[in-house]
Amino acid sequence: MILTSSPPVARLRLSDVQRNCLPSAALRHHAGRKITMDDKPRTTIRKPARIDRGRCFCGAITAEFSGDPFWICFDHDDDCRRAIGSPLTIWIGYRPDQVDWLGPKPKTFSKTRGVVRSFCSECGTSIGYTDEGLPNEFYISIGFMDAPEKFHPQAQAYWEMRLPFIRMDDGLPRVEGYTRARDPALGNPRDR
Questions:
Q1: Closest CA to 160 of 39, 77, 102
Q2: DSSP 8-state secondary structure symbol assigned to residue 151
Q3: pLDDT tens by residue, 29-72
Q4: Strands, E, within 3-137: which ranges?
Q5: What is the pTM of this model?
């Protein structure tokens, strides 16, 4: 079969994407001269904020954490040991505005005045805690995080309370109590 006529040619129009690929007025303005360090950038390229995610064992409680945590620390305290059910834990410190609960919020419980622990009411996963002595700080248990290997502790808290079989040669500072400055008016939660 031989075609005797060609199909009609459609006129092409520039799409928004194609128009955005054309040299901008700012670039045309600089045409013909070298751009120097004195030239101000028209836009600032921002590094995307770090986003980490976490979830409880059953998946009922999920959260996203934006930006870098301000503190990461091993904790050998006997109160936390009992609450977590582990010989030690690692706490990851975020500001409350860095935490976004993606569904139901965790349940809370307080045995020690000023310290509120959060957990999943379905599976019991320990999620984190707040302490009145550390305002504007929320600590997440490393076990809640989807990628715990991304978090590297900066210190060992309550080192003297560690269990005798725990030996670590990590070179981190060993602190007898808290590793963060607390409001001295509230005292130590263990003494309340």
A1: 77
A2: -
A3: 445 555 566 656 555 666 658 999 999 999 999 999 999 999 99
A4: 51-55, 62-66, 71-75, 89-94, 99-101, 107-109, 115-119, 126-131
A5: 0.73
What is the per-residue pLDDT across 78-87, written as a single tens digit (0 to 9) for each?
Answer: 989 999 999 9
Could you tell me which residues are beta bridge partners of residue 131?
115
Question: What is the CATH architecture of 51-163?
Answer: Beta Complex (2.170)
Please state the domain extents for the chain: 51-163
Pairwise CA distance, residues 46 & 96, whole Å: 23
Smallest CA-to-CA distance from 108 within 88, 90, 130 is with 130
Nearest to 54, CA basis, from 163, 170, 148: 148
C-beta atoms surrounding 39 within 10 Å? 11
